[in-house]
Amino acid sequence: MTNTWIKRQAGKWITLAAIVTPVLSRPAQAGNATLAAPVIVTVQAGQPKNISPDLVGIFFEDLNYAADGGLYAELIQNRSFEYSAADSKNWNSLTAWELVQRGGKGSVVTETNLPLNANSPHYAVLTVENGGNGVGLRNVGFDGITVKAGEKYDVALFAREISGRPAPVIVRLESKAGTNYGEIVFSKVTKDWAKYTGTIKAGGSDPDARLVVLAKNSGTLALDEISLFPRKTFHNRPNGLRPDLAQVIADLHPKFMRFPGGCLAHGDGLGNIYHWKDTIGPVEQRKGQPNIWRYHQSVGLGYFEYFQFCEDIGAKPLPVVAAGVCCQNSDYLVTHKWGIGQKGLPMEGMPAYLQEVLDLIEYANGPVTSTWGAKRAAAGHPKPFHLEYLGVGNEDAQTDVFRERFKMIYDAVKVKHPEITVIGTVGPDPSGSDYDAGWKFADEQHLEMVDEHGYKPPQWFWENLTRFDAYDRTKSKVYLGEYAAHEKDRANTLRSALAEAAYMTALERNGDVIRLASYAPLLANERHIQWRPDLIYFNHTNILLTANYFVQQMFGQNQGDVYLPTTISFAASDTNQTGGNLSASCVKDSKTGDLILKLVNANPVPVLAQVNLDGIAKIKSAATRTVLAGDPKGFNTFVNPRNIVPTIEPFTAAKSFHCDMPACSLTVIRIKTR
Q1: Count of CB atoms within 10 A of residue 139's CB?
Q2: Which is higher by pLDDT, 131 or 29?
Q3: Strand 296-297 and strand 316-321: pairing?
Q4: Which of 74, 225, 362, 395 is catalytic?
Q5: How many CA atoms lie within 13 A of 393 on its CB side?
Q6: How far is residue 550 from each of residues 484, 499, 556, 585, 668, measured CA to CA in Å?
Q7: Is the same domain home to 120 and 223?
Q8: Of 90, 161, 189, 638, which is most buried with the most CB atoms under 10 A?
Q9: What phi and psi, each to the nearest 5 degrees, are found at residue 54?
Q10: What's the 3-state SS for 507-559?
Q11: How far is CA 480 from CA 264, 419, 424, 503, 545, in A?
């Protein structure tokens, strides 16, 4: 073996033994697909390497209406009347609500003089002058409210009588035209704020229903926190998650989940930093706020729900907190310039912020006898959530202001909780000044892990398949927290998905240094998109799974904890060297003993491979093969959601076997050894 000088992306020149690369990027030669096994894939089972068992996970950010109007199952928009122009320039506290007058007369305004609590300062005041057949409010939900016949929907609202006798209060599910699908009646309302609850069983199905709150007697009524929740949520959790959307996330089999976001976590200015304590406890006491993505976050989906969801899907929680600074892109809508908005919390405020971070760890892991462990138990979860990872910062500009505050947080956590892996950040790109400065800082501080991001064209991923081979194994490990192959039109093409698949084979090969990886963003409401491409699209009735989703699913459902060196070579018979743009990896799942071979062929022609499993003591012939293939420019749509989907079929394996890799495909072969 000769020595090869390879420059690490973020550090000094280092010497490595010459690397045999399982990557070939020569152009494919059309017409050679019929040659007998022109490509040889060799798996060396006798040279195993332990890799991260947590490699493939997910990153949830409240972006593209991913929470309210998305994963969070609440059906009422602006339920607490807290929308404002700070969220979106055309919004106000009655956005998504409208006055209803049915043969009567009345009015509605919002007030703040006697609120439900300090965190919910606005409430609606309904004045009924003449009740008629009802005067009240109607909510349109998030682009409509989907109801299904026979299903139960839980209603909750807070009310107090201001004057007169406006009760009874009637709450109905109606069609857009006024058809009544079911109602409940609250016959009396007290002079003080009180919570009223009931259940409506829908008498019809409608993707565009409305919730209507009516009073029939003269008087004035205060209303707040008006909620409509489907009884059926993911795992039937109260204040839970939309079951179909949560299930397709669970089907990815993620080993971890990062939350509540990236830019969202450090916020649009210091006043918009995400504070986890504002998101726990009774929902009416939580403190919502504007979202850096220019809409409102109710935080009904808060830290308790995030931790609970992680537990429900078997994913380790990975919360991300601000590193004592706000997003450097704060105030962009004012300045129209990126990168000038980073500000640090005043130093006199840092001790309190450090305690907030430490309290988060206690909330997740502390005993029920601790202050914050008791709050977790009061929410219904006395057992700890087993927090192992904590992200501090997100894509932060590498300034002295950032470094000083990050170090304070890092040191405070490591002193009290050395068992927690603290993940730093090296900027928004896989190269450049912030990247270099971030790695330099990580080296100086001996950080155990850093968060790298990379949004690049598909070709970049193919050109960087050996990127992590050169990383110094003695330095910080890597969490590839955000990555995606971006086409010029931001479409979720199969070509982009295959570029990601090839990259993921490199991540498996380097799973000793790449400990965690997650595609981003995860979710997008198709009618409210701020960023694309995304992994999963949805509206209030349907879900669209992309080709990129299926790549993540095929890797997520076929993870291993041991990497078996995998190489690709050409057979002598392949005189034209068919098979450029190929990549492969093989891992072993120690729990099951299964070998999992992944083959990526980005060529426009099929490639026949001979697979040799060297050093395998025993192979079961009955295996399975999953294939994702199609037009490289193709993608799934709501009209044609199954344009590109994987197929699963039985497969016969042996210590040496032939495998056809279809044109433009990802193939996963799972082989049993026990």
Answers
A1: 20
A2: 131
A3: unpaired
A4: 395
A5: 37
A6: 14, 13, 9, 17, 12
A7: yes
A8: 189
A9: -110, 25
A10: HHHCCCCEEEEEECCCEEECCCCCCCCCCEEECCCCEEECHHHHHHHHHHCCC
A11: 18, 21, 11, 11, 22
Give yes or no for residue 5 having a pLDDT over 70: no
Question: Tokens 């997003």 identify what position?
Answer: 327
- Neighbour-count burial for 58-91, b at 16+ CB within 10 Å, e otherwise: bbbbbbbbbbbbbbbbbbbbbbbbbbbeebeeeb
**Positive or negative torsion for Cα 496, 18, 478, 51:** positive
Burial class (CB in 10 A: 0-12, 13-18, 19+), 600: buried
Number of structural domains in the chain: 3
Amino acid identity, position 449: M
Query: What's the rounded Cα separation, in Å, for the pair 583 and 631?
Result: 19
State yes or no: is 174 an active-site residue.
no
* pLDDT tens-digit map of 552-586: 999 999 999 999 999 999 876 544 444 469 999 99
Q: What whole-number distance in Å separates Cα of residue 371 and Cα of residue 488? A: 51
pLDDT band at 336 (very low <50, low <70, confident <90, very high): low
Instruction: Write the CA distances from 49 to 1, 338, 560, 561, 646, integer angstroms.
Output: 19, 42, 11, 9, 29
| Cβ count near 393 (within 10 Å) | 28
Query: Residues 138-158: what's their mean pLDDT?
Result: 98
List CB contacts of 282: < 8 A, sequence separation 6 or more: none
- H helices of 260-399, in order, are 263-266, 303-313, 332-335, 350-365, 371-378
Tell me the pLDDT tens digit for each residue of 423-435.
Answer: 999 999 999 999 9
For residues 422 and 298, membership in a common domain is answered with yes
Same domain, 388 and 282: yes
Structural domain that includes position 658: 19-51+561-671
For residue 463, what are its two tokens?
């050109």
46/252 Cα distance (integer angstroms): 30
Tens digit of each residue's pLDDT (9 = 90 or more) over 47-101: 999 999 999 999 999 999 999 999 999 999 999 999 999 999 999 999 999 999 9
Q: For 292-330, how does the pLDDT look when each residue is reduced to its tens digit (9 = 90+)?
A: 999 999 999 999 999 999 999 999 999 999 999 999 988
The token pair at 250 is: 């669970």
Structure tokens at 612: 């040799």
For the record, the structure tokens of 243 come out as 């079951």
Checking if the pLDDT of 636 tops 60, the result is: yes
Give the pLDDT score at 330: 87
Q: How far apart are the C-alpha atoms of 472 and 475, rounded to whole Å?
A: 6
Q: Tokens in use for 11?
A: 């550090």
Convert 63-107 into a string of H (helix), E (strand) and C (coil). CCCCHHHHHECCCCCCCCCCCCCCCCCCCCCCCCEEEEECCCEEE
In a domain, 84, yes or no: no
CATH of the domain at 205: 2.60.120.260
